[in-house]
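Sequence in, structure out. Go.
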Amino acid sequence: MPDVTDFLNQFSDPRAENKVTYPLSSLLFMSICSVCSGAETWGQIITWSETHKAWLNNYVDMSQGIPSYSTIRRLFTLIKPADFQLLLRGIVDSHHPVRKPEDHVAIDGKTLRGSHCHAKIVTAMQMVSAFSVENRLTLSEVKTNSKSNEITAIPVLLALLELEGATVSIDAIGCNDTVINAILAQDADYIVGLKRNQPSLYQAVLNYASEKGNKINTLVSDSFDDGHGRCIRRRYFTFALPDSICAKGPAKLKTCVAVESIVSQQHSPKVNANWRYYITDHDASHPGLPGYVRKH
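Output:
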């Protein structure tokens, strides 16, 4: 099995040769180890490395000492994110060669906490990530310029993944032909949220669910979640959609998953209920549908 340092030594150094003081493998190793230990800023990377310098020296050359935080920051401004992503993926794959097959991959957009700067008028960084539910591992991430650009970033993210046989779950922002066709092109399945951003399809599904879908014979899961001062009852209904509705939706659309959440708060007599809807190319009899929604 290749050692972590073997991968680091093979990584291309983006720095000018006449300006190199610290070995690249040393800077990368201390950065990766410190972040895995909880460091979230350049300064915290340096603090952790100074504390663990003797341990680091067992694996990489630390004879030049610990650099300043600005040295680490400059290095990572030169490294291409895609190259660094491949490096990390190679390390993970080499040390965890046997993983559970991807059954559920959740795609979601996140705002990186602390990435904004009011003084320099820098907005917070937006990322779209793919998370393996089975392996509890982020498979890949793509940076977007704004929240609205997630629609264009998701197909780019999907192209980085191997999704054959998996089910991909996405919020309502992924309910469009571009995203869903990208999923189907990899022989994967989809389950996406349905909201008013698809008004015609949403209203048709809502009407059908109210009239024929949300019935006792389509109830597949009924569970309670008690904690944080509230009790939530979640009821999952799965039912096939008629061809007239499927024709209005994305390719291979077959089924709707309707979720009723009934919420009661401690020390309050009020009980609130709301409905959420998801569409999928799975058959209504698929046993994993409630789990795909709940674990997203």
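Check: The first strand starts at residue 104 and ends at 111. The chain is about 35% helix and 25% strand.
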